[in-house]
Hints:
Helix content: 40-55%
Number of strands: 5
Shape: elongated
Low-confidence stretches: 11-15
Amino acid sequence: MVTRRQLLLASAAALPLAACDADVALQQIVATIQKDCGFLTTWQNIASVVVTIVTTFDASAGAAATVATQVANQVVMSVCNAFKAAEKPQGPLSGGEPPKVTVIVNGVPVTGVVVGKGG
Length: 119
């Protein structure tokens, strides 16, 4: 269950994207999630989530493929909320690699690593 506080925090995290009138590239969504949530995933995982929202989405442009700002905000909010609710391993794995986490967003598994939030 999402609390009001979680919803407000997630909405605030999406504000940097809301300031743009133009479409948002998948790589920019990945960067926003990393900066605001401390979760680094791939543009391919984000494209899979976008398809659950916009069934006609074409990711053939790769990381440069764009979506409407409203869709980008929804993806950021959904991934961040799922990540915040997920159990995270403590500390780096053997070999110093950051721990991997898989969250489910709109029925799609999104795997990434735990990283520090950006400035």
